[in-house]
Amino acid sequence: MYPHPDDQTRFSIFDLARAAVRTLGRDWAVKRGDWGVSATLFNESRTFLLWVDESGDLCLDYTRPSDELLPEVMPNGVAVYPGGMFFEAARATEGLFALSVRVASAVQAAVTGTSELMIEIPAPTSGDELGRAHAQCGPILIYPAGRPLICHSAEHDAPTVAERMVSYCGFTLPACGDHEAAAAEFAREWTT
Ligand SMILES: [Zn+2]
Question: How much is the pTM?
Fold first, then answer.
């Protein structure tokens, strides 16, 4: 991973952190380090430093609260060391989006203990396209429903419009804003 944009990469560590923050959601923000070769990802309670060490590995340092356990499940290719984690064999040639999903998943794993992010995509036009999106982005995707559907949840007294679809590895459920996480959980249990 080379910190400076060049013909191969065309993005900096700051660009990568900014893309990861977009995936993590509105609570998160990013600050550029000196020269753009490091960046800080932060929310109200947590701070992560994205940087490249002297051997060229992409690293994510953070301070773990003393009562916080290491994540049980780390995203593929993420190794933990005291004070942070690094991305094994990460290369800029993977592309900005793929790398940003890896960074966001690692932050998510550290903060919540699960690496499964719900990633927003445009509505896929076919099952194949949805499959490719899962291969690139991970097991949980969310996208606009496209036509009026009813939320899958039985918690509603009356039928409620679902604005979006939640897909767990291709198993999809319509969900209103209150039941997107529940849809992912239900689909996961159903398919595993
Ligand atoms: Zn609902």
Answer: 0.65
* Contact yes or no for 161/150 (Cβ under 8 A): yes
CA dihedral 78, 112, 121, 169 (to 10 degrees): 80
> CA–CA separation, 52 vs 35, rounded Å?
13
Q: How far is the CA of 124 from the centre of ligand 1 (A)?
A: 22
pLDDT in tens, 11-55: 899 999 999 998 887 789 999 998 878 999 999 989 999 999 988
Q: Are 42 and 125 in contact (CB under 8 A)?
A: no
**pLDDT exceeds 60 at position 155:** yes
CA of 98 to the centre of ligand 1 (A): 31
Confidence of residue 98 (pLDDT cuts 50, 70, 90): confident
CB atoms near residue 142 (< 10 Å): 18
The one-letter amino acid at 155: E
- Ligand 1 centre from 29 Cα, in Å? 29
Angle between helices 13-24 and 96-112 (to 10 degrees): 60
Ligand 1: centre distance to CA 182 (Å): 9
Distance 44 CA to ligand 1 centre (A): 28
Residue 170 has pLDDT above 70, yes or no: yes
Distance 142 CA to ligand 1 centre (A): 14
